Amino acid sequence: MTADHAPVGAGFTALEADAPHLVQLRRRTEAQLGRLSDALPMVPVLDDDDLFRGAEPAGVIEPGLSVVVCGSYGRGEAGPQADLDSYVLYEPGRATEARARVLARRVHGAAKAAGIRQPADGGAFESAQSTDDLINTIGGVADVNQITTRRLLMLLEGRALAGDAVFRRTLDGLIATYVQDHHGRDDPATFLLNDVIRYYRSICVDFEMKTRGVEAKGWGLRNVKLVFSRKLLYVSGVVAAAETAGLAVEEKRR
Predict the structure, then answer these.
(1) Looking at the structure, do residues 196 and 72 belong to the same domain, yes or no?
(2) Which of 63, 85, 165, 231 has the CB geometry, 3.0–4.6 Å to 71, for a possible disulfide?
(3) Domains in the chain: how many in total?
(4) Which stretch, 17-21, 39-43, 157-161, has highest mean pLDDT?
(5) 125-156 pLDDT per residue, tens
(6) Residue 174 sits in the same domain as residue 189
């Protein structure tokens, strides 16, 4: 099975003289994701009924499921110490949460076999995610931090390791929600802009919570991420929203 991500293009080759380390990381990321995607169907796991399931047929990912990769692997700059930030999307009516959890365990097993680090337990990338909740809870009571994180990271830096059709349908649904038919040509995508701003503010508050007190750990790494990758993510979202001003609705959505 081939991973649903773009290969290194000529544009990155042209950067080799000025940014050889970045190009090297991009190539390493593509190679790692390719190996992970190829190994994914071969990982046997127990399902939720504790029934042994062997390897799926090569290349098969069940309809209605998608493996979303974010973070440094999503951006194409994963080094040897990078965690694989991923989660499994499932479309209600096409797939179940139980089957999504089985696929998530396959991803974990394949990553472990490939020597790819996993994020800490209990974070935003641990459980399966309903596409309906991702699209239809924006700004509501049910829009908890985990869903907000998954939604914005998918939109701004995510890619499909497998299940590209589900990934694309979800992305289209998110964009259609952010850019409604009544948006005027001169208006930027303010719904998206406000969500990006809200997410960045939550990251900053979360940073303070996780780094204060005597039990705080990892201040240095968290600070570097906040100053660089998180801020770049925020700026990219603001710019993307601002660039929709002056465009018709369909052009804004593209």
Answers:
(1) no
(2) 85
(3) 2
(4) 157-161
(5) 567 999 999 999 999 899 999 999 999 999 99
(6) no
